[in-house]
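To: structure desk
From: M.T.
Subject: fold request, one chain
Message: Could you run this one when you get a chance? Sequence is below, nothing fancy, just the single chain.
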Amino acid sequence: MKSYGPSPDDDWSSYDQEEPAILPLDEVVEADIRIVDGVAAALAYDVTVRGRRLEVLVQNQVVILLGEVESEDVRMAAGLVAWAVPEVYDVCNRLTVTSGI
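Reply: Done. Structure tokens follow.
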């Protein structure tokens, strides 16, 4: 059986306490930029969601939707629009429904 990672017999004192920061791959960063542009355009085009002030964040191909909408239908529609954009790995729909908009 192939072993993944260090074995219990490894000398851990040889490992540095601070590991270097691992930067995202260029491809992931470029995909995130394409995704945020695509989601923003799709939300602006969709008649159910258009005109709302929403924030779109993308990290590692995961879309995060932030903001307030007036109904659960609009919230769900925004999530579906984001899911339809190519290269999206997941959607975190953090939109809140408020009655006072």
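Reply (cont.): The longest helix spans residues 26-45. Let me know if you need anything else for the meeting.
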